[in-house]
Amino acid sequence: MAIKIRLARGGSKKRPHYSIVAADSRMPRDGRFIEKLGTYNPLLPKDSEDRVKMNVERIQYWMSQGAQTTDRVSRFLEAAGIVDKKTRSNPKKAVPGKAAQERAEAKAAKSAEASENSGDEASAE
């Protein structure tokens, strides 16, 4: 049985509240779970103590039993200092899209053309 430590959504529409749970990976997201390990309330400010609450001892127990954490839960554990920080790479994130690149090239060409014209006028005088 593959165990995952993941988030299970609760709360009403547009007011999410998540439970951090240990569950069988084959079960649905909000379905049956083995044990509740904490809570996460994304509506609270990031510096609030109540935003993420975890039972660290139980999480470490489940990880020692071979449980895998999801990306979001592993970020919570990294922030708490329980797990070493993973290196993540998304090199294309900062690259602008095709249309934005075309606009930047057009703007650069226009400014270069304008600077050449102003340089010619200055030398003519």
| Separation of the first and last Cα atoms | 84 Å
Assembly context of the chains? single chain
- Give the name of the CATH superfamily of the domain at 3-80: Ribosomal protein S16
- Looking at the overall shape, the CATH architecture of the domain at 3-80 is 2-Layer Sandwich
Shape: elongated
Q: What's the CATH C level of the domain at 3-80?
A: Alpha Beta
Number of helices: 3
What proportion of the residues is helical, as a percent range? Answer: 25-40%
* Residue runs with pLDDT of under 50 for 5 or more positions: none
The CATH topology of the domain at 3-80 is what? S16 Ribosomal Protein, Chain: A
Largest sheet: 5 strands, mixed
Number of strands: 5
What is the element string, with H for helices and E for strands? EEEEHEHH
Nearest-integer average pLDDT? 88
Structural class: alpha+beta
Q: What integer value in Å does the Rg equal?
A: 25 Å
Q: Tell me the strand percentage band.
A: 15-25%
Biggest sheet: strand arrangement: 4-3-2-1-5
Structure in words:
This protein is an alpha+beta fold. It has a domain of 78 residues: S16 Ribosomal Protein, Chain: A, CATH 3.30.1320.10. Helix content is 37%, strand content 25%. The chain has 3 helices and 5 strands; from the N terminus they run ββββαβαα. A 5-stranded mixed β-sheet has the order 4-3-2-1-5. A hairpin with a 2-residue loop joins strand 1 and strand 2. 14% of the residues are buried. The model has no long low-confidence stretch (mean pLDDT 88).
